[in-house]
Write a structure and sequence with these properties.
single chain; mainly alpha; 11 helices; 75% helix
Length: 254
């Protein structure tokens, strides 16, 4: 009887807490119908639309070959920036962040759990988009998979930092408006889905310095040519570091 009553395990390790928090965040994101539309349905609609219209003709590849890297980049922005930003903003409003930050999970563990959830959902998005794009005739450069996925993770890190920065500094209602508006603007004119060559002249001069344009260009270079666009990768790294530092400095937990 004494063996049954005696504790046989200590407190959960930090890594286990992070995994459990990441699991919770992932399930929450996947159960949210609005986020699923933003993360899966709209990118797939854009993929099909770009594959059957002449918007991307004349850019050195088939429509689906040029469209798919941009759609993968759009998935990263949808989940890491818009989805995570909105979820974090409302968690902050209802006191969830303040409560969790005082538990053994801690603030660092909470952020790590959110990042883990973004990566899991992004993996599922990549699988779905790859299957649909393959059915549409996508033929990515084999050498582009490793750098492409690495750059996709870097882009997700940049957009997660931006999403947390917005969610932690403005009201939840404003977070909802800002993230959705930027998703539309960057998706249409930010070089993430449509290459800079197809954008208005004014947009062409600035999209390469935006995280959207840099990620779109980097993924197209990787999956079309099997190469790494180092300037675009540097832009993504700078956005990650600057937005991450700003989020750490100004994030409000209540």
């Amino acid at each position: 009887m004494s063996k049954l009553l005696a504790p046989n395990a200590g407190p959960a390790s930090l890594s286990r807490r992070i995994v459990q928090q990441g699991k919770y965040e992932t399930i929450t994101m996947l159960r949210n119908g609005e986020q699923l539309i933003l993360a899966i349905v709209l990118p797939l609609m854009a993929l099909v639309g770009l594959s059957v219209t002449p918007l991307l003709d004349g850019l050195g590849g088939s429509r689906v070959d040029i469209a798919t890297p941009g759609i993968l980049a759009l998935c990263a922005m949808s989940t890491a920036f818009t989805g995570q930003g909105i979820a974090t903003g409302f968690d902050r409003r209802y006191g969830v962040l303040r409560f969790l930050s005082t538990t053994p999970l801690g603030r660092g563990g909470l952020i790590a759990g959110k990042i883990l959830a973004v990566l899991v959902v992004l993996f599922l998005q990549v699988v779905v988009v790859t299957i649909v794009a393959g059915l549409l005739g996508w033929h990515p450069a084999p050498a582009g998979w490793l750098p492409g996925l690495a750059l996709l993770v870097l882009g997700a890190a940049a957009f997660t930092a931006l999403g947390l920065l917005v969610a932690g500094t403005v009201r939840p209602e404003a977070t909802l408006a800002i993230t959705n508006l930027l998703w539309i603007l960057l998706g249409a004119l930010g070089g993430i889905v449509v290459p800079a060559e197809r954008l208005p002249a004014l947009a062409q001069s600035i999209v390469h310095f935006l995280p959207s344009g840099a990620l779109g260009q980097a993924l197209r270079e990787a999956f079309l040519h099997g190469a790494i666009a180092w300037p675009a990768a540097l832009v993504l790294l700078l956005w990650t570091l600057i937005a991450g530092a700003a989020a750490i400095r100004w994030f409000k937990w209540n």
